Amino acid sequence: SKGLMGLPQHFLQGKVLRSMERLATLARKHDVDLALHTHVNHANQLTPLVAEAAQLLLHMGFRDVRNQGVLLRGVNTTSKDLLDLCFTLLDRAHIMPYYFYMCDMIPNSEHWRLAVWEAQNLQHDIMGYLPGYATPRLLCDVPFVGKRWVHQVARYDREKGISYWTKNYRTSIELENAEALATHYEYYDPIYTLPEAGQNWWREQEAKATVA
Q1: 211 found inside a domain
Q2: Which end of the chain is more exposed for a tag (fewer CB within 10 A), N or C?
Q3: Residue 169 has pLDDT above 90, yes or no
Q4: What is the pLDDT of residues 68-83, one digit of tens each?
């Protein structure tokens, strides 16, 4: 729920707390581990109310409150900023850093996005500072594949900014597809992160497409 970060006062209402406590009690009765995932992208978003709400959930029996954020250039994509966020989550609210996804390839988001190599470097740079269980994985949500650790790339053309990914499972509509696990799916780095040769190659592709 993004609401825990965006509207923590909702989770501090008596009726909501009672509902959450009933849910935690029911889960415990049936030996089910209950966790809530929230969405914090910068340490400044972690207000005292967010910390209070998260700790109340833990005290009533939730196994974890975990954070699934998004890597946003200029917000949390230096090792200093990302570690500051992770330590703030842990120390101030007992929220577990969990995943940080690379920003999706969607319109008007290029200024936020990282190249795969930048995310790989960032994962390297944050290792060793946090406990192992609290070191987040940086993920790429590859179209038609799903979440992949940034170091799981099968092949990577750094010059053109094209990474190729495979999946290790079949969905229900792929059970009879013998090629499902061998197919390579593409993810594209932002053009401005490419070397000059790569940017020129993409300009050529655009010119060819315009002529066609």
Answers
A1: no
A2: C
A3: no
A4: 999 999 999 999 999 9
